[in-house]
Prior knowledge:
Blueprint: H1 13-19, E1 29-36, E2 42-43, E3 51-54, H2 55-67, E4 72-78, H3 95-106, E5 111-116, H4 138-155, E6 159-162, H5 169-179, E7 186-193, H6 200-206, H7 226-238, E8 242-246, H8 252-261, E9 266-270, H9 272-283, H10 289-303, E10 307-310, H11 313-322
Helix pairs in contact: 3-4, 4-5, 7-8
Amino acid sequence: MSFQKPARLRRTATLRNLVRETRLCVEDLIRPIFVTHSNNRSAIESMPDQFHFPLGEIEKTIEESMKLGINGIILFGISETKDETGTDNVNENGIIQRTVKMIRKSFPELIIITDACFCQYTTHGHCGILNENGIIDRKSSLKQLQAQAISHVKAGADFVAPSCMIDGMVQYIRDALDEKGYEDRGILSYAVKYASAFYGPFRDAVDSAPQQGDRKSYQMDPGNIREALKEAQMDEDEGADIIMVKPALPYLDVIREVKNKVSCPVAAYQVSGEYAMIKAAAQNSWIDESKSMMESLLGIKRAGADIIITYFADAAARLIVSKL
């Protein structure tokens, strides 16, 4: 009597490749880049092999990524000036606006995504304008978020990625873009952004840690998934073109459920803490960096992510390309 033997399909590498169910492609990857007004590139201590790039070096590093097949980036700016309302985020000569203008001329086919928020532009480090009680003022924050989005797409961004988790942010941005004639520009919404402990290295990188309190009143509770589905559906209904889940690895179940819920593409952000853990363990020879990196990215893809934002983008692309 015959019976199934799954191991028959694992016997050789070519057989395993033939029946592989999930494949990671270079086209799946988006590279995050930190850009600064400084004249010199500087290493980010808590994120090995990641840097603050000056404007003078941004084109070179993007060109290197594009040679690997990476066609999309997301930009995070390090502001020169901070104030209580984060006014530098709408400055047409701000770091993001200047960067986008420059790289759009050099790389017309590059997908440019810009993070739209307040935390790295404010003295208090919160993701909006605070009222006298220290709570985010929704209306004034959304109005300024509209202006920030317009300044980014005017400079040449393809997508604006609002990350402040303010109710109605997608609708406000969509209305503003359409009114100004930017119907063809997209919104990648941080629709499902958890109040996570895995953001620490990023907050060091952009000096955006809250100076008082925390972000639990507007970012999601890690224990909730029905709320995540509600947030995702609301943002899609308001006009989001891509829905994002952040972080990725601790929320693979959420990625899968969101994928089943919405009809638009789903992105997942492998955040700074996820990246730093793999790098730190590898530096101590506790794990194999390349294998762990690829396994983690494949897991995110298998969970349902169409797009993965990862600091491993270049490294992963090199491995993928080398096996072609």
